[in-house]
Design brief:
heterodimer, A: Rossmann fold, Alpha-Beta Plaits, six-stranded mixed beta sheet, four-stranded antiparallel beta sheet, B: 10 helices
């Protein structure tokens, strides 16, 4: 179990992580979600003792990372797949890590086999594709057979095959009873991968809940009603106590389903041009919740597609 | 112990230390061969045929060893592996001391090859009793390279940890060692006195290079005190580097 208590990191005048408290339950995949620049990587580096928090603490099974004995046996992490010397072979890269924590040389071959890199084990890592580097990073994370695993944006930049492989791998790790904490800026990805979600924006906690609850809470179900003359229907709906929002020449109704609205329209003899259920996308939900917390905000007009708000890069 | 092995694997599993090591040996020994074939008592009457004189080009090897040692840590910062290092060994002092030990051993070995190699090729070309290792001073000149190279490696490693960038660290080290120390002596009046306290000047005085020079009489320290002084500077720089690495975010 990973626990952050009042975690804070300040760089000069910027508060990268602001009094962040959350816990990552044992034996599940927990997604760490936030827009780019929300402080996800900084938080992960603080959990691993690489960056010193300005305030608060991060504990793994009740201990600070730097107090762990042979930490690779407790926590495995992949923060950046490119953190490998390009002229060192994959095997040598794993060999020195294994040696530093008194892990056997046989374990190196095991993890290479696990991620399917045995064939290129003696090739220099600099020549690896991003997908192969990612696998090497995962092999390094698994070296000590740790119960806790941290992955920072593991699917970033991967092709669909690579994404699928990583996703399946995460599930497999969780099925083995390990604690997996994986960050992403894509809610759609997390909805497929994570059972729990820790959502942050601008370094602050926005929510911690199960993925199901988060999606349900975030996406509201509404009905769009369009017609040439809606005044009568509007007053009837108002009497029924539902929430109505105007959008151009149509009404967005929440709290009543299509069937009920249709009957109400018949009763008031209203001509309808459209009556359609609307379901917010995960991206919309995410943006709605993280709202102003996106760093380097762009003033997009309402009509812009939400997808453009979620940049692809890291 | 496991950290030492890990650092050894890390250092020897890339090519640059091998090339640097080779260059650090070939350059000074090669120049010694060149010098030995050309010099003789008639064309260089002032040249003293002593073991110390065979070590005149070792500073070339020292310069390359500095690059090797600095690279051992700056490449880790360059490629982000320093984070894996601190992840595997969160006790950063232990991790960096292990790295220092491995670098020191390697540079000491290179120093031994350079010292004895230069002396051996010189003697092979100028056989005579003058070049035998007889006195303690003779041994200090040749075997002393082991200590001087080891300390030079540790010093450069310290600078590398402090600067964290290959280009910066190498520029500082080479410009300092090859230019600054020599130029200080050019300053009128105080230049000489300051030069007497420069680290690589101290290293050369320990080795006894050009001992008979007019400008090298009445020095403030003896050879072993000069070595201790050089070692003290090394410990301070390396210590400052390790202290900084512990304090800084990786």
């Amino acid at each position: 179990m990973i626990e952050a208590v009042g975690l804070t990191k300040r760089y000069g005048n910027t508060l990268a992580v602001d009094n962040l408290s959350f816990s990552v339950p044992t034996g599940r995949v927990t997604g760490f979600l936030g827009p780019n620049g929300a402080g996800k990587s900084t938080t992960m580096r603080m959990i691993l003792g690489l960056d010193t928090p300005t305030g608060g603490s991060a504990l793994i099974d009740g201990k600070r990372y730097r107090d762990l004995h042979q930490p690779l046996r407790t926590v495995g992490a992949l923060l950046d797949a490119k953190w490998v010397h390009p002229n060192r072979s994959a095997r040598a890269h794993l060999a020195w890590m294994a040696r530093s924590n008194n892990l056997s040389a046989g374990r190196v071959d095991e993890v290479l086999d696990l991620v399917g890199l045995t064939g290129v084990a003696n090739k220099r890592a600099g020549g690896f594709s991003l997908g192969m580097s990612q696998r090497l990073g995962i092999a390094a994370a698994l070296l000590g057979d740790p119960q806790v695993l941290l992955f920072d944006e593991p699917v970033n930049g991967l092709d669909p095959e690579g994404i699928l492989w990583i996703r399946k791998f995460m599930h497999r790790l969780a099925d083995e009873g390990r604690t997996v904490f994986v960050s992403s800026h894509l809610l759609s990805e997390m909805a497929l991968t994570a059972q729990e979600l820790v959502v942050i924006g601008r370094g602050k906690l926005i929510s911690q809940s199960s993925t199901e609850d988060f999606v349900a809470m975030a996406t509201e179900n509404t009905v769009k009603v369009r017609g040439p003359q809606l005044t009568a229907l509007r007053s009837e709906l108002g009497r029924a106590g539902v929430t109505i929002r105007d959008e151009g020449d149509s009404l967005i109704v929440s709290g009543m389903d299509c069937a009920d609205i249709g009957e109400l329209a018949a009763r008031t003899q209203t001509v309808l041009h459209e009556l359609s259920p609307q379901r917010g996308s995960l991206e919309e939900a995410f943006i709605q919740l993280t709202g102003d917390s996106v760093e380097y905000h762009t003033d997009l007009v309402d009509g812009a597609t939400p997808a453009t708000l979620v940049p692809a890069g890291k | 112990m496991s950290l030492l092995t890990a650092e050894r694997i890390k250092l020897l599993s890339t090519r640059s230390p091998w090339w640097c090591g080779l260059l650090a040996i070939v350059l000074p020994v090669g120049f010694t061969v060149l010098l030995a074939t050309q010099v003789n008592p008639t064309n260089a009457p002032g040249f003293e045929f002593t073991p110390a004189a065979t070590q005149g080009t070792a500073s070339l090897g020292r310069a390359v060893v500095m690059v090797l040692a600095a690279l051992a840590v700056t490449s880790e910062y360059r490629f982000g592996t320093i984070r894996s290092t601190f992840q595997a060994a969160p006790q950063r002092v232990a991790a960096l001391l292990a790295k220092s030990a491995v670098v020191v051993v390697l540079t000491a070995v290179i120093g031994a090859v350079v010292g004895f190699g230069s002396w051996a090729v010189f003697r092979a070309l100028h056989s005579g009793p003058d070049l035998d290792l007889v006195t303690a001073a003779d041994w200090r000149s040749v075997a002393g390279e082991v200590l001087v190279f080891a300390l030079t490696g540790a010093l450069a490693l310290g600078v590398g940890i402090l600067v964290r960038q290959t280009a910066g660290a190498v520029a500082i080290l080479l410009v300092y060692a090859l230019l600054v120390e020599g130029l200080i002596g050019v300053i009128p009046k105080v230049g000489r006195d300051i030069q007497h306290w420069m680290p690589f000047f101290a290293a050369d005085r320990f080795l006894g290079i050009r001992d008979g020079g007019d400008d090298l009489q009445n020095l403030p320290l003896g050879p072993w005190a000069y070595l201790a002084y050089f070692a003290a500077i090394t410990v301070v720089v390396l210590g400052a580097g390790i202290f900084a690495a512990v304090r800084r975010d990786a």
